[in-house]
Write a structure and sequence with these properties.
Distance between the termini: 96 Å
Order of helices and strands: HHHHHEEHEHEEHEEEEHEHH
Strand content: 15-25%
Bound molecules: 3,4-dihydroxyphenylalanine
Number of helices: 11
Structural class: alpha+beta
């Protein structure tokens, strides 16, 4: 009997002393494994008399049960300690900034695009997109530039190599093809703006081969020129952050609008700076007009039922005007000093609620 008690004490002490899971497993195998000391005792029961078995059997079983429990408990304690140690070692302080000072800045073109989107979103417009590589139909024909029409010459188009069918794709010369794409897939009422890249073979201080435009389109049953003017006025006030903006609608010509206008805003040049709103000078900011009935018919809508307005505006131009950037080409030089000077913080998100779009 004493031997069994001594064995139990010895094994229990070994369990307590096991410092990690591997050591504990070694103790378990040595006691309860196939050839373990407790297993050997159990096996010996088979060769004993019924009498001996009756007394020793419960003792051995008791030993085995208590030992098994002790090992289980020790294992759980060791596992919990191992997990706690790992959590401690792998702890990440999520309150630490990823890097110290923010690197880089938002390009003025991206900033102005965000501002424009924000202003028109407040007026209920959504953003539409189209591909940079367009076909003749969307960029010209559907917009009422028939083949050979002189207005095509106004756009110095970049053409791609013709395909097997002889069809030449092109880099879109304006964002107006997005009007066509939108009207062909979305039933009126339509209220979209389409900001994006545009391309023309042109390069000087105020022209780059790639530039940015934002197109606007509203199609509904009773949209008229007054809506167009009100919409553009609200935009100019919010964008230039002035209460009053004098605007001038000059008659103009675009194949896809009738009537068409170019819009200037009043400004004053004072000591080399531009002040927007009022003044003796005018600055052209966009082209616009009532969508030509033929364009509406070209997309499969009935021009007697639907009408609307459109406008197109150079984003780079807006950025130059608003942020006083003199040379357009610098937009695309990737000069870090220029970007640092004219760039915006990533967190400088335009909040037009405060600027009062009514
Ligand atoms: N697509 C014209 C251009 O690039 C700009 C434009 C003028 C767009 C009048 C319009 C518009 O939607 O109505 O020169």
């Amino acid at each position: 009997m004493n031997e069994i008690r001594d064995l139990e004490q010895e094994l229990m002490a070994a369990v307590r002393a096991a410092g990690d899971l591997a050591a504990l497993e070694a103790v378990r195998v040595a006691a309860l494994g196939k050839k373990g000391r407790v297993s050997e005792l159990m096996k010996a029961l088979g060769g004993m008399s019924a009498e001996e078995r009756k007394t020793l059997g419960p003792l051995y079983n008791g030993l085995k049960d208590r030992l098994t429990d002790a090992i289980t408990q020790r294992r759980q304690a060791l596992e919990a300690a191992a997990l706690a140690a790992r959590l401690e070692a792998e702890r990440v302080d999520v309150t630490l900034p990823v890097r110290g000072e923010p690197q880089g800045s938002i390009h003025p073109v991206s900033q102005v695009m965000d501002e424009v989107i924000e202003i028109f979103a407040d007026m209920g417009f959504s953003v539409a997109e189209g591909p940079d590589i367009e076909d003749d139909f969307h960029n010209f024909a559907a917009l009422n530039f028939p083949p050979g029409h002189p207005a095509r010459e106004m756009h110095d188009t970049f053409y791609l190599e013709p395909n097997e069918a002889g069809e030449r794709k092109l880099l879109r010369t304006h964002t107006s093809p997005v009007q066509i794409r939108t009207m062909m897939k979305q039933k009126p009422p339509v209220r979209i703006i389409a900001p994006g890249r545009t391309y023309r073979c042109d390069s000087d201080a105020t022209h780059t081969p790639m530039f940015h435009q934002v197109e606007g389109l509203v199609i509904d049953r009773e949209t008229h020129m007054g809506h167009l003017k009100g919409c553009l006025e609200a935009f100019a006030r919010a964008f230039f952050e002035v209460e009053l903006v004098e605007m001038r609608f000059r008659p103009s010509y675009f194949p896809f609008t009738e009537p068409s206008a170019e819009v200037d805003i009043g400004c004053a040049f004072k000591e080399g700076e531009i002040a927007f709103g009022e003044g003796d000078d005018w600055l052209e900011i966009l082209g616009c007009g009532m969508v030509h009935p033929r364009v509406i018919a070209n997309v499969g809508l009935d021009p007697n039922e639907y009408q609307g307005f459109a406008f197109g505006c150079g984003i780079d131009r807006l950025a130059m005007l608003k942020y006083g950037i003199p040379d357009l080409r610098q937009f695309f030089y990737s000069d870090v000093r220029w970007l640092r000077h004219y760039g915006f913080s990533a967190l400088d998100i335009p909040a037009l609620g405060q600027r009062g779009v009514q």
